[in-house]
Write a structure and sequence with these properties.
142 residues; 2 domains; 5 helices; DUF1178 family protein; DUF1178
Length: 142
């Protein structure tokens, strides 16, 4: 596989992976390569310097993968998750039990966060209990 830096006619830059230079050319001719930002199929390859992996540029590579738009979206998701956590009671492993109590009117209505297995989550949904997972965002698991 070959990685190409690509630019569209609106000057948006992105990267793509292709089996060969000819593969890129064939896909471009058939308008199968388009800009993810604006959708333009008028794209060209950029000259690329060889990539040498060092420990020093590891952080630079990690940030280069995430576009500014993606970083903005992840930032907004972080804010949303922080707001949910700040306004909900963390009941940990008791989540399925507490969610059912609220659903059946046995406990006061309030926001909850906690843990549930996949099976417990399925059972809650089947009972009509409204639940949703909080997203796991980049850097939260590493």
């Amino acid at each position: 596989m070959i990685r190409y830096d690509i630019v569209c006619d609106n000057a948006h830059e992105f990267e793509g992976w292709f089996g060969s230079s000819e593969d890129f050319d064939r896909q471009r001719e058939r308008s199968l390569v388009s800009c993810p930002a604006c959708g333009s199929p008028r794209v060209t390859k950029r000259l690329m310097a060889p990539s040498v992996s060092t420990a020093r540029n590891k952080e630079e590579r990690r940030h280069a993968v995430m576009t500014a738009h993606n970083q903005e979206m992840v930032g907004k998701l972080r804010e949303l998750v922080a707001t949910i956590r700040a306004n909900a009671e963390d009941v940990g492993e008791r989540f399925p039990e507490e969610a059912r109590k609220i659903h059946y009117g046995e406990a006061e209505q309030r926001g909850l966060i906690g843990k549930a297995t996949a099976q417990e989550a399925r059972e809650l949904i089947e009972e009509g209990v409204e639940i949703a997972p909080l997203p796991v965002l980049p850097d939260e698991t590493n």
